[in-house]
Amino acid sequence: MLASRLKNTVIRLLLSVSLTSFALPVLSSEVGRYEQIVELNRKVLFLLSSGADNAVATQRDTFISRNYYYYKQQLLEQALDDFLTLPANERAIKVNQFYSFLHSDQVRAADAISFIDLIDNLLLEHSQAPYLSQTELRQLRQLEQQILVIQDTYQTDITELTSALVTRGLELEPWQNYLDFLQTQYTRNDIYEEFNQQAPALEQPAVRGAEDNSKSDLVWGYGIPDKTVVLTFDDGPHNRNTAAILDTLKEFNVKAYFFAVGKNVGSVNGDAVKLSKSSAQLQRALSEGHILANHSFSHPVLTKLSDDKQKKELEDTNTLLKTVSGIDVTSFRPPYGAKNDQLVQLSRETGMRSIMWNIDSKDWADPMPESIVKRVMADLATKKKGILLFHDIHKQTVQALPELLKALDEEGYKVVDIDGNPFDSVNNKKPAEQPTAAPVASQLYGNSWALVIGVNKYRYWPQLSYAVNDAHGVKEVLQNKYGFEEERIFTLLDENASRENITEHLANILSDPDRVKPNDRVFIFYAGHGMTRVLPSGRNLGYIIPFDAELDKFHSKAISMTHLQDFSDMIPAKHVYFVMDSCYSGIALTRSGGRAARSKYLEEIASRQARQILTAGGADQEVADGGANGHSVFTGMLLQGLEGAADLDQNNIITASELGAYVSPRVSENSNQTPAFGNLVGSEGGEFLFELAPVNISDASLSEEERLKAEILKLEKENIILKRQIAELSNTQIAHNLVRGSLEDISQLSLTQRKLKANEHHGKGLKFYTEKDYKNALSELHTALMYNPSNPGITNDYGFVLFRDKQYKQALFWLEKTIELDAKRIPVYLNIADTLVALNQLSEAVPYYQYYLEVYPDSPLKDRVDEFLNARG
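That's the Polysaccharide deacetylase family protein sequence above. Prediction below.
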């Protein structure tokens, strides 16, 4: 039997309000509020049950539904406040109005579930302090029983309870009929576009996936061991439901985190703190070994508040929780998962890590305990571990928890703390600060070009939180570490990253031979959605998703890997490197060969054409947000590698293959992603190269030809017999300090072994140099010279660090030694001149400055050198 159809006159108020602020409208009637609650609940059920055809659409539906849910909760809280504060005669009218609404022809049986929390709270308040009349109490209890029957019915045979429901005043229909009805009321694209227009700046949590390791400020859940879970409950405390959850946790002897909303715990007025009666549930939780955590004071979108208001939200809640527990709070979860760098920094400053989740039980949307359990266990079957998100304010959560804990036990899962340890305490780990290095222009390329794309705010697709910040981070490292010039970095963000703009830059700007030359390099970075389409042939084809691509017809405006292959062929640069922070498959590539550039290998890979790609993961994998410094896990690892960690053989050059070899296993360890890297079809065995700052500390100007000649000369000089090399050093302080104890050992090593050891210590020395730790830098460079004394790069760097350490006499010796080893190393003449000036040997500096300008007339330091020479006449 079908219920009455919803009247056409039912108002749809939801999308006329601002979801970014969740400001509640003034409703013309109480019935209008009830209609709005039903409308919200219907949209939630529509989005979560309408059969999205890909994982991204499913995530999109979940995020919008979560916001609808929270808005619905605010309306329910507003209704509850009215019931509790109105005079008895007005309340009686409202209760009757509410009862009549739920039995009107506007409402289907399933709609009544929208009000389960409201009815539960009204009856809870009455049980603690009776205030309802007998008529009101009878009406509310009847509604409670009807809703419980509806819940039960949708999990059992519908025919058994139909007649009983009809006699109770509600017409029952099969659940699928209700869902079919919702399909006639809404379309996804309409909801998507309207939502984006109403909430264009709302940070969206966990849309591309979620992950971080335990050393980050953000904790998502993949860093714990397999077969472990963390139980977390948001939005309480609630007198009845939190108490029931604590009973179940005690029965199963497991512990959990309770992320409390401050206003439910009490109030703070200056130094005056007043606890609510619900705070007793947190005191009990603490006494039974659970962890109390901060979920803000009023559950706002914190990223939309001023700095002061954000701080007050966190501090007032911490004050209340410390009043309850007597200890500092170390964990924080932002409402709605909405976060930004400022908020993460604030939580860090207040001594808290931000705890997210990677498995959403959807107990906030699903009224059926059985399906909540099935959903969580299905997610765990794929993810193997994680932080589980529940809410201790819902009856369905109370009902689902015992069955969930039974299922976890049967499957061998253990409940642990957020660090994956047996549940006893929460450690407060913080990320280490990463040193920055000075930029250096490439010695191996002509010009360096980049196209950097990041899309958070899509027209139809789910909004992202990290992509734009990922793009900014990549641009910064290219510009500040590798010397890419601002005017040669093209940045497309959000609505500017349309298909037209992306293809314009790839097919025209970067493919223009009058602009991009054969000796240039082009770096292309994309952060945003990716999608895989299975072709009729069975082959997978990957796509990147521009701002304006439709969700269900993405291939019409998306950019496929085939297109990218074509664009790469059009670009005249010698080396092109695509780095894609999105997941898809179907990339035609071959694995890159080789590790870091060294010796003759550098000459080969620098001269051959290269078309290479590195992607964040394969098809059906979520890009894991939540990496270091507000980046995705993939981009976080990418930036870490580009800062120098990917220089696997420590020769101060990172190849694209090295970068892939560094990033891929680390991303896989910290997420459910498996990055892929290799050569695109048509690559000729070359390698895209990143010269670490500094390859040779003062050398930022050599052309590729000069650089390669210097490398060849270096190889020739490295063939000098070891004893002769050491003899050349016998009169230096290094010989006295280092040689005597190690000469015999070094002489037993092969030339290749000595070079590798020298590279190892050379790399360490440069790292200390970038940290301005000159003492340790010089020590490591001493050791490097022991293994490879005729290496002009090491010799130059040792002299230059001595100069920086103001040991000018020793610096002059080693800089002059560099010229003996490699007369083509032009900047060393400038270094020698500067050293002579520091030693006040001004006349001797003149010829070195003159020669420097003769061979490098376009030097950016020309004005400084000319000023000195003019002053000397």
